[in-house]
Amino acid sequence: MQTKGRVAVVTGAGSGIGRAVAELMLESGYRVVLAGRRAELLEEVARGREGALVVPTDVTVVGQVDRLFQTAVQTWGRVDVLFNNAGVTGPAVSAADLDPADWDATVAVNLTAATLCARVAMRVMKEQDPRGGRIINNGSIAAHTPRPQSVAYAVTKHGITGLTKSIELDGRAFGISCGQIDIGNTATELADAFVAGPGALQPDGRRIHEPTFPVAEAARAVLFMADVPPSANVLNMVITAAGMPFVGRG
Predict the structure, then answer these.
(1) Which residues form a coiled coil (predicted)?
(2) CB burial class (10 A; 0-12, 13-18, 19+) of residue 142?
(3) Is residue 226 part of a domain?
(4) Which of 115, 152, 162, 199 has CA atoms 20 to 30 A from the CA of 107?
């Protein structure tokens, strides 16, 4: 599919998977709106590229989300793809020990913010000419099988699956497709705890050093989902490090 000139909004674009996806999209001819809380990291990704637009954004704040998409439309006229990527790991505690404040903070970023961004993206995609577009939600293999002591993260990622299906259904009449990528152990700062120190906690109480895979491969998977023609949609893709404890976990 022709990508040159298409407009993508990437949240959490300053680091990790979001950064890798944004950089690959820029290399592939997309015009990319880089959203995230830390402007200095977004500027590093942009590096003066003509197709990059830095819009520092706290996606948990309604007014800032509105401004993000208004800026995209004012600058480039439309939004073809939203990569709903911003997220946090949440507290590493049992459900019995969860602090309500930590729960609220995790839900705000992982679930509410993703919904806020999808809400405005859909409004833009419904009204633009030609109308339509694609939303890709960054889920997690935790949307299928949780880790121990990850209740807030696991619940929000299960919620992302419901969001994905709802967008795909509600967007159908307007040419808006939605898919979800569930990634396991790509090599980013968030995965450091799985490969360093005592390793990742397993359901049987052991800790092991789990394998990871290059973040560039996760970015290529997202780009594939973004680039399929409007007549097709990748509803769900699971990509994990080979050999990681996911199938048969526990």
Answers:
(1) none
(2) buried
(3) yes
(4) 199
In this prediction the pTM is 0.94
Q: Is 153 designated active site?
A: yes
**Catalytic one of 30, 69, 103, 153:** 153
50, part of any domain: yes
User: Would you give per-residue pLDDT tens digits along the chain (250 residues)?
Assistant: 556 689 999 999 999 999 999 999 999 999 999 999 999 999 999 998 999 999 999 999 999 999 999 999 999 999 999 999 999 999 999 999 999 999 999 999 999 999 999 999 999 999 999 999 999 999 999 999 999 999 999 999 999 999 999 999 999 999 999 999 999 999 887 666 676 788 888 888 888 888 999 999 999 999 999 999 999 999 999 999 999 888 876 5
Please indicate, yes or no, if residue 78 is contained in any of the structural domains: yes
Q: How far apart are CA 136 and CA 222, in angstroms?
A: 8
Range(s) of the domain holding residue 227: 7-240
φ/ψ region of 12 (left if φ > 0, alpha if ψ in -120 to 50, else beta) reads left
Alpha-carbon torsion angle 18, 137, 170, 113, nearest 10: -70
CATH code of the domain in which 12 resides: 3.40.50.720
| Cα dihedral 5/10/14/15 (nearest 10) | -110
Helix axes 100-107, 151-170, angle to 10 degrees: 30
- Alpha carbon 175 to its chain centroid, in Å, reads 21
Sign of CA dihedral 236, 239, 60, 107: positive
ω into residue 214 within 30 of 0, thus cis? no
| Interior angle at CA 164, CA 181 and CA 13, nearest 5 | 55
Token pair listed for 201: 């906690």
